[in-house]
Amino acid sequence: MSDARTILTKLRQGEQLSKADVFWFAEGLATGVVSDAQAGAFAMAVCQQGLGEAGRVHLTNAMRETGHVMQWRLDGPVIDKHSTGGVGDCVSLLLAPALAACGAFVPMITGRGLGHTGGTLDKLEAIPGYNTDVSPDDLQDIVADIGCAIVGASAEIAPADKRLYAVRDVTGTVASIDLITASILSKKLAAGLEALVLDVKVGSGAFMGTDAEAMSLAQALVATAQGAGCMTTALVTDMSQPLA
Asked: CATH assignment of 4-65?
């Protein structure tokens, strides 16, 4: 039987967490069984010790499973693209409808920017009247009707991630590649994707400032998504200058 203290001790000592440990902790984040102090300790321990490839897959799947996971019955592929973000990065706003026009279905659950970069959600919320808070059922109806939608993660999507992200922000652990990976993919894979393309930005206008950092994140994202059963590839692209 897992418990928070045992899991945190294992992490602090550099031991590999079992799948059961990770799923218990994610469920505890979502239900409130895990306290803020324990969530912060978990984030710091992961930042310091890492989870390993299997642990990243477990955390991604576990946080996804704490909320609604979409199921699709459509006559085309359900796909998405995710950018790690950069100043003036507006590619998603053009790509989602372009893919829909080609017969794909794009349930793009997007997020806010990291650090000094603005996320797609930040840009869309600057448009008066644009509603980014859409329930999973409404999102499925919209995508089935017009082929794409760009929305934020509702409270029903990966609630464990929402809790952990808030703790990371105040504990200085946002930059952990393991936690970034699980956070991005728990929401993306909750959309029931068949395939995903990742655009990992690098440079002065991106969250990842060096090629080595960007490559590490790209490799972690691809390995974790594929380990979770989603066909995935990544590009590392330059963000030394704003795109718009």
From this structure: 1.20.970.10
Q: Give the pLDDT of residue 244.
A: 58
The answer to whether 168 is a known catalytic residue is yes
Q: Domain locations in the chain?
A: 4-65, 79-238
Domain 79-238 of CATH type 3.40.1030.10:
yes
From 117, 168, 199, 201, active-site residue? 168
CA 102/CA 207 separation, integer angstroms = 31
Kindly tell me if the per-residue pLDDT of 242 is higher than 90: no
Q: Compute the distance between CA of residue 214 and CA of residue 220 in angstroms, rounded to an integer.
A: 10
Helix (H/G/I), strand (E/B), else coil: 106: strand
> Is 82 an annotated catalytic residue?
yes
Catalytic residue, chosen from 117, 187, 199, 232, is 187
Mark whether 120 is an active-site residue: yes
pLDDT tens per residue across span 45-100: 999 999 999 999 999 999 999 999 999 999 999 999 998 877 666 788 899 999 99
Task: Answer for the pair 127, 136: CB distance below 8 angstroms, yes or no.
Answer: no
Q: For residues 162 and 243, give the distance between their C-alpha atoms in angstroms, rounded to a whole number.
A: 29
* Residue of 83, 117, 132, 176 marked catalytic: 83
154 is catalytic: no
The whole-model pTM stands at: 0.90
Q: What is the mean pLDDT of the chain?
A: 91
Instruction: Assess whether 19 carries a catalytic annotation.
Output: no
